[in-house]
Design goal:
0% strand; cell projection; bacterial flagellum; FliE
Length: 116
């Protein structure tokens, strides 16, 4: 996964926000601490979950790249098999993120096309 992949996901988020603003939706701000307390443990904010997932994907990529650099330097305890497995995990996580993004965009388009 490349840095451009994460920036692509951020671009999609910005596009979704701008489309929502054009549709007349009010942009939401980050919840305050008081609002989080009132939500309770069962409620999850979608935007926070999405940002956490993107951060997780990015950290997997950074970890795989760091392990690749450690292998290139010849650090003890870093095998090529570990590097390849971590690179594949990061790649699959990125692909999953892209698929989730595609489904969210499709769902949003369907909702926007509904007649009320």
């Amino acid at each position: 996964m490349s840095v451009s992949g994460v920036s692509n996901l951020n671009n999609v988020l910005q596009q979704l926000q701008s489309t929502a603003a054009q549709a007349g939706a009010k942009p939401t701000s980050a919840p305050t601490a008081a609002q989080k307390v009132n939500e309770g443990p069962d409620k999850v904010d979608f935007s926070n979950a999405l940002v956490a997932a993107i951060d997780k994907i990015d950290s997997m990529k950074q970890s795989a790249v760091a392990q690749g650099h450690a292998f290139e330097r010849g650090d003890a305890g870093v095998g090529i098999n570990d590097v390849m497995v971590d690179m594949q995990k990061a790649g699959l996580a990125f692909e999953m993120g892209v698929q989730v993004r595609n489904r969210v965009v499709n769902a949003y388009k369907e909702i926007m096309n509904m007649q009320v």
